[in-house]
């Protein structure tokens, strides 16, 4: 690969790859800034994938890419929320998708920044995104997208649909917790539902604005988006709405489980306090009597009798019996 001169970034700095698409499902891949500078001036259909935190990428995007400045600044923001913006015949999309990398936490959603025009696609990311990897593999096998709208639809589908498996996983976890509570097989605790509610909150935080984004995108009019593409986008919007409704339902189930656990814990605690209160009612008079008999003063009746101890024990037993009967009559036991 050619060495770069001093006017270009260092070899591959911030450039994951770029490809020139043949519009037949395939593409030629490159990783040289020099060839990108040369091809970018042509009318070829090009997709470039970059690291948005690289200084070289930031400089190229702002000064040499031809991307509108307002779009470039939006794409380079450090922390973004899902949104869309059209400028002339181009579309800016800031998306969030499930982290599908092996060993990653799915709700730790990764961001993707896209600028799409009729013959240019610019995508930025920092953390590895399996969505772009799968699209890249399809192009290598000559089974990839052929148009900008095809890339958009694949990206939307791959960023939105995978959340379905995470929702099913949460649903299965709640089923297990509910079964454990019903069968009294598990220790009653709020920790599992707290973790699940945190996962739901993370998913919903990014999916709700993405639902609004898709709803707005459906009404956008771009020369490279036809009616069929718009219908697909509407389906993706409906899918996002369904996912949010399912997340809301799962959150309600968490609330119900939490209330049931709270009720069970309160019942257990009240039962134990109740037993302690009953014991206190029975033994408090007995304690008072033995305390009086135990004071060191003269004149205690039968203090010199050898049957006094047994008599006191019998009297205490009779008192306990009558107290027990009284509590039963009043239905306190």
Describe this structure as you would to a colleague:
This protein is of the alpha+beta class. The chain folds into two domains: 15-264, CorA soluble domain-like (Beta Polymerase, domain 2, 2-Layer Sandwich), CATH 3.30.460; 276-329, Methane Monooxygenase Hydroxylase, Chain G, domain 1 (Up-down Bundle), CATH 1.20.58. It is built from nine helices and seven strands, in the order ββαβααββββαααααα. Strands 2-1-3-7-6-5-4 form a seven-stranded mixed β-sheet, sandwiched between helices. Strand 1 (15-21) and strand 2 (27-30) form a beta hairpin. The longest helix has 67 residues, at 227-293. The model is unreliable at 1-9 (pLDDT under 50).
Structure, briefly:
The chain has 333 residues and is of the alpha+beta class. 55% of the residues lie in helices and 13% in strands.
CATH superfamily of the largest domain: CorA soluble domain-like
The secondary-structure element order is EEHEHHEEEEHHHHHH
**Number of structural units classed as domains:** 2
Cα radius of gyration in angstroms: 36 Å
Q: Regions with pLDDT < 50 over 5+ consecutive residues?
A: 1-9
End-to-end distance, in Å?
A: 90 Å
Q: What would you call the shape?
A: rod-shaped
CATH class categorisation of the largest domain: Alpha Beta
Query: Strands of the largest sheet, in order across it?
Result: 2-1-3-7-6-5-4
At CATH level 3, the topology of the largest domain is Beta Polymerase, domain 2
- Helical proportion? 55-70%
Average pLDDT figure = 83
Q: Report the total helices.
A: 9
């Amino acid at each position: 690969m050619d060495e770069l001169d001093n006017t270009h970034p260092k070899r591959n700095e911030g450039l994951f790859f770029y490809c020139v698409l043949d519009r037949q499902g395939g593409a030629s891949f490159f990783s040289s800034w020099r060839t990108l500078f040369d091809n970018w001036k042509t009318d070829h259909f090009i997709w470039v994938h970059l690291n948005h935190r690289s200084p070289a990428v930031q400089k190229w995007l702002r000064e040499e890419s031809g991307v509108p400045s307002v779009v470039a600044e939006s794409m380079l923001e450090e922390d973004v929320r899902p949104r869309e913006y059209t400028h002339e015949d181009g579309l800016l999309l800031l998306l969030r998708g499930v982290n599908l990398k092996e060993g990653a936490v799915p709700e730790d959603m990764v961001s993707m920044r896209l600028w799409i025009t009729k013959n240019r696609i610019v995508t930025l990311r920092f953390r590895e995104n399996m969505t772009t990897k799968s699209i890249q593999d399809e192009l290598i096998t000559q089974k990839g997208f052929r148009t900008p709208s095809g890339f958009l639809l694949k990206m939307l589908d791959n960023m939105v649909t995978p959340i379905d498996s995470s929702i099913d996983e949460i649903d299965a976890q709640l089923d297990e917790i509910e079964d454990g509570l019903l069968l009294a097989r598990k220790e009653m605790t709020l920790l599992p539902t707290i973790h699940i509610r945190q996962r739901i909150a993370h998913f919903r935080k990014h999916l709700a604005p993405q639902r609004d984004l898709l709803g707005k995108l459906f009404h956008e009019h771009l020369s490279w988006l036809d009616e069929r593409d718009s219908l697909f986008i509407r389906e993706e919007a409906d899918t996002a709405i369904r996912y949010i409704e399912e997340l809301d339902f799962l959150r309600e189930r968490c609330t119900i489980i939490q209330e049931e656990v709270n009720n069970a814990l309160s019942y257990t605690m009240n039962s134990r306090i109740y037993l302690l209160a009953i014991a206190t009612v029975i033994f408090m008079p007995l304690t008072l009597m033995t305390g009086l008999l135990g004071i060191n003063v003269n004149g205690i009746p039968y203090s010199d009798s050898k049957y006094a101890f047994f008599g006191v024990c019998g009297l205490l037993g009779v008192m306990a019996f009558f107290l027990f009967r009284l509590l039963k009559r009043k239905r306190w036991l």
